[in-house]
Write a structure and sequence with these properties.
Order of helices and strands: HEHHHHEHHEHEHEHEHEHHEHHHH
Shape: globular
CATH topology: TIM Barrel
Distance between the termini: 13 Å
Number of helices: 17
CATH class: Alpha Beta
Helix content: 40-55%
Radius of gyration: 18 Å
Mean pLDDT: 96
CATH architecture: Alpha-Beta Barrel
Strand content: 5-15%
Largest sheet: 8 strands, parallel
């Protein structure tokens, strides 16, 4: 089954580019840019990745982002992830980025998006990897800040496929961003939102009914409400589940208890993703392998989860069909 995971082409739909900042790159960029970080060695950084909650992770995540300053930094960060995609046979990726984490430090929006985009364009030309960019609002900040960020993004609208919502879930429900998402929808963006990881299933309902999202990121707590499960199934709303992340952040106590296969068996459009792989112990194939090692997963389920990644993507139908045919070995 692990050979199957490597062999099949895959799409990844829930990946924060800042969450691919490996300790080695963090140290190199900190030295280059003269940024002070709290760790004396790579080993010390890795030891700090013992999270107790989403917030304990975010504290380190935002501290790490401080080393990203120049366009070349964002290019290097993104290119490193894309080389991993090539190695793991990820042929399409929909990458999230958090501009507010950088513009709040004085880094220009243009610097961030152009560094990322140039790497994506190079990957398309040289590696054959297609991609879309998802701009995420930080939900612990105000809706006004999100709207200002949306307005800043409009000159680069042709480079952005979708608008998302991430960061601290508890206490920051989707309803907080209803106006910002309505503006994004009117501007023609696709919509996604993190919901139902730390927050309960009411957050998923809000994302659906108030933000009108096309896709739910995480969504693992949907099974608290069978009506919600039925709604997701009937409307083919996909869930971008991140198994290793859920365990690392204590949303699930152990991989053997993860409900990803239960959701799949209920007929939901579940996908597997790596979230913030530099922090959570592995990229996409490692997430699949953790499921093989800890869950009673079979070849058909692996293949269906991988097919779902294309079905749930924002690719056009012709491209989806092209990739789906390649999944039928």
């Amino acid at each position: 089954m692990k050979n199957l995971i490597q062999k099949l082409p895959k799409a990844e739909l829930h990946l924060h580019i800042e969450g691919t900042l490996e300790p080695e790159l963090m140290f190199r960029l900190a030295k280059k840019n003269g940024v002070s970080i709290s760790y004396k060695s790579i080993d010390e950084v890795k030891k700090a990745y013992n999270f107790t909650s989403l917030q304990s992770f975010l504290d380190i995540y935002y501290a790490g982002a401080n080393v990203l300053i120049t366009e070349q930094d964002f290019f290097d960060l993104t290119w490193g992830y894309l080389l991993t995609c090539k190695a793991q046979n990820i042929v399409h990726t929909e990458i999230m980025f958090d501009p507010q984490a950088h513009t709040s430090r004085g880094v220009k929006f243009q610097t961030v998006i152009m560094g990322i985009t140039k790497a994506l364009q190079k990957a398309d030309e040289e590696l054959g990897i297609s991609s879309f960019l998802i701009m995420s609002f930080l939900r612990h900040l105000s809706e006004k800040d999100a709207i200002d960020t949306l307005k800043s993004s409009l000159p680069y609208k042709h480079l952005i496929k979708a608008i998302g919502l991430d960061s601290s879930e508890l206490g920051n429900p989707p309803s907080k961003f209803q106006k910002a998402f309505a503006m994004a929808k009117n501007a023609g963006f696709k919509l996604v939102a993190h919901a139902g990881e730390e927050g309960d299933c009411s957050y998923i309902w809000e994302a659906l009914n108030l933000l009108h999202v096309d896709r739910i990121d995480h969504g693992i707590r949907c099974d608290e409400d069978e009506k919600l499960v039925g709604y997701l199934k009937q409307n083919k709303i996909s869930l971008t589940v991140c198994p290793l992340s859920n365990v690392k952040l204590k949303a699930v106590d152990d991989m053997s208890n993860h409900n990803v296969l239960k959701l799949l068996k209920k007929g939901l459009l579940v996908t597997v993703n790596s979230d913030d792989p530099a922090y959570f112990g592995g990229y996409l194939n490692t997430n699949f392998k953790a499921m093989v090692d800890n869950l009673e997963i079979n070849r058909e389920q692996i293949t269906q989860l991988i097919k779902n990644s294309f079905i749930a993507s924002f690719l056009d139908d012709e491209k989806k069909l092209e990739y789906l045919k390649k999944c039928d070995l």
